Amino acid sequence: MAPSFRKVFVNLSQQLKNNNIQYYVKMMVKDVSSRKILVLVDRFPLAPEYSPSTWMIGSLTELSAIAEIDVASVVNLLPRMRNLVHSKRERASTKAAWCSAMENTTVYPFPVRHFHYLGLPARFSWKLLPRLMTWQVLQRIVKTYKANHYDAVMIHGTYPVGHLGIELAKRFRAPSFVINHEGYRLYQQYFSSAAALELFNVLNNADIIAGLSPNHVRELQYEFPSKMIQMLCHGISIPYDATRTNQKNKEEPFRILTVARLDGVEKQISVLIEGFIQFVQVNKIRAQLTIAGDGSDIPVLRQIVLKYHAEGIVHFCGWVGANKLPDLLRSHDVFVCASTHETFCYAILEAIAYGIPVIGLPEVGILSEFVSLFPEETALSELTSSQIAEKLSLFYNAKNKWPQIANAMVHVVKKRFTWTVHRNSLHDILNQLIRIHKS
């Protein structure tokens, strides 16, 4: 018997309804790989061997795997003179900046174009620098990419590139995604109110803000309670020999390492030096502190070492390139982070990835993920020279636990800080950003 007209109509209506729902669902969960993203950076590693931002290449590579991206790299041709005098990395980057072409860079799995500008010291005017950058390169970037339709503008950094990124998002009528590398509280504590105001304006105008660690996200949520804030941890590749099995040879000195820019007020390397000297004096053991990095604070730090006659046990090895860093890490027993503020702290991630335990403040960057595992031996309660000396003593006396501590920290890295985790986080954030904007 032939079906009734009513039944045919109902079936047809139901199919159309189901198809519409399926279409709607497909549009809502459409993969980001079909999206086009404009990425703005001001810290692209032009000279990777001397760049603290080599992770940027890995991050952009992961992003290019899930979306079509154009990378606009904004390069300052006029850094501060003191940086050129004291920093090998600054000299290398400046030379590379002057030599870099405005053409597409093809050595990476994503296109990069470099846009040069002439800057000025930020402290001269915290408000003027980002506007000077915007005035010089905004029209050039718009002209270069004006034929493209972008689903989002990703801004790597808040100061000084954030102002430019927000303007680009307006020009392209796309939502903005700001990755806050600098932190907000750091500018409140150590710099002028004008600097904090600049960061506030950029972050307050972003559609989504990304923090780099649980500590950083909590900081941003407190300062910007009405904004959408997500976490985007960096990733790292784990060497095959990261697991630590050997015990410390009693004949070798106890080797302590820190890697940092030696020009940041939050790095507190002077406190680390004094704490290390106290530790040696109290314990009467053979020990060595290696300070890797460069910056304008080196002369002052050397004077502190001379003051305590510690030239034989405190060694400044300068900036260490990426090809030499693994050997440096493997030759030390513990990494100490003496910073009072970090949004992430990639240096400790590199150390742990090579099987070196870390000591530091739990409320700094990602340190809480690691020092909470063995707080007695690795978690500082405060950043003072006496507390550093005490913690070094506790760690040194726990030599039989070093492999256990190192391997537990490596396990956390393998679980939480891989490039796969980084890519998945990027994917989720961008899908969320685009859906919100479309709605």
Question: Keywords for this structure?
Answer:
439 residues; alpha/beta; seven-stranded parallel β-sheet; five-stranded parallel β-sheet; 18 helices; 47% helix
Measured between the Cα atoms of the first and last residue, the distance is: 47 Å
The main pleated sheet reads as: 7 strands, parallel
Order of H and E elements:
HEHEHHEHEHEHHEHEEHEHEHEHEHHHHH
What structural category arises from helix and sheet content? alpha/beta
Summed up, the helix count is: 18
Helix content: 40-55%
CA gyration radius, whole angstroms: 25 Å
Describe this structure in words.
With 439 residues, this protein is α/β, with parallel strands linked by helices. 47% of the residues lie in helices and 14% in strands. The chain has 18 helices and twelve strands. It has helices at residues 5-28, 55-66, 81-86, 88-99, 128-145, 161-171, 185-190, 193-205, 214-223, 269-283, 298-307, 325-330, 346-353, 368-371, 375-378, 385-396, 402-416, 419-438; strands at 36-41, 68-76, 112-117, 152-156, 176-179, 208-211, 228-231, 254-259, 287-292, 314-318, 334-336, 358-359. The strands form two sheets. A seven-stranded parallel β-sheet has the order 3-2-1-4-5-6-7, with helices on both faces. Strand 9, helix 11 (298-307) and strand 10 form a beta-alpha-beta unit. Helix 10 (269-283) crosses helix 16. It is globular, with a radius of gyration of 25 Å.
